[in-house]
Design brief:
The protein has 9 helices and no strands. By secondary structure, the chain is mostly helical. The chain has one domain. Helix 4 runs parallel beside helix 9 and helix 6 crosses helix 9. The longest helix is centred in the N-terminal third of the chain and has 46 residues. The chain starts with a helix and ends with a helix.
Length: about 240
């Protein structure tokens, strides 16, 4: 009898572990798909003079750059949106970031040296993202108390960035903002990874799992993009 109970417990544990692994892999796959969409859109827009002029020359450039912030602030409501709508918001943001990053691709095409800098920034961001994800997954410490501080810090960074973009135009403030933003988004990566793990349940409804997956993927995607952009900003201003 005890042997049967032990075997049943082992079987359930394996099922939970397998389900959790699939759940995490699905979220990281969504996040990776977003990064790929951003890269592809950036290359397409940068290689088309018509598209680049349409989006990135003139006042519309500001609209394109601020649109992701507006969508996240006003249009991202994971508790009220279906998984299908969350997916649409996710890929819309990936496309908008791709359009914004087309300026990076244009400079890369003109300067191989800058291309090397971009590659270094990407690999550093990837390593940092992976490291913080592993930390968030394996740590026994509850990271939830830090999320309020992280969110407040990120909004402070966003406001500082907007002020610098429209008013100050200060390279020093830009570098300081990036130095603060990188650890903040790294912290969000660790927290989100732990949150994904803690919220998983093999009995949760599929629609809830899909909604949680797209919401988590969006948070991880934005964190990675932000780390990459700010690391690149620091490296390009050295």
């Amino acid at each position: 009898m005890q042997t049967d109970r032990f075997q049943t417990t082992q079987t359930r544990t394996r099922e939970i572990d397998e389900g959790l692994r699939q759940h995490m892999n699905n979220i990281y796959a969504k996040m990776t798909a977003g990064v790929l969409v951003t890269a592809i859109v950036a290359m397409v827009v940068s290689s088309s003079p018509f598209l680049y002029k349409l989006f990135m020359v003139g006042p519309q450039q500001t609209i394109v750059m601020l649109a992701p912030l507006a969508i996240v602030w006003f249009g991202f409501r994971p508790d009220r949106m279906s998984s299908g709508k969350l997916m649409m918001v996710f890929f819309l943001l990936a496309v908008l970031y791709g359009i914004s990053f087309s300026t990076i691709a244009v400079v890369m095409a003109a300067s191989p040296e800058f291309g090397v800098t971009v590659a270094k920034a990407f690999f550093i961001a990837t390593g940092m993202f992976a490291g913080m994800s592993v930390f968030g997954y394996t740590t026994k410490r509850d990271l939830s108390p830090m999320i309020t501080f992280l969110v407040m810090g990120i909004w402070g960074v966003v406001i500082a960035g907007l002020l610098n973009y429209f008013i100050f135009h200060s390279p020093m403030l830009s570098m300081l903002r990036s130095m603060i933003a990188i650890p903040l988004f790294a912290g969000v990566t660790a927290w989100q990874t732990q949150n994904m793990k803690e919220m998983y349940s093999p009995s949760m409804p599929q629609e809830f799992a899909n909604r949680m997956g797209w919401a988590a993927a969006l948070t991880l995607y934005i964190s990675f993009i932000a780390m990459f952009a700010n690391i690149l900003n620091l490296m390009s201003q050295r």
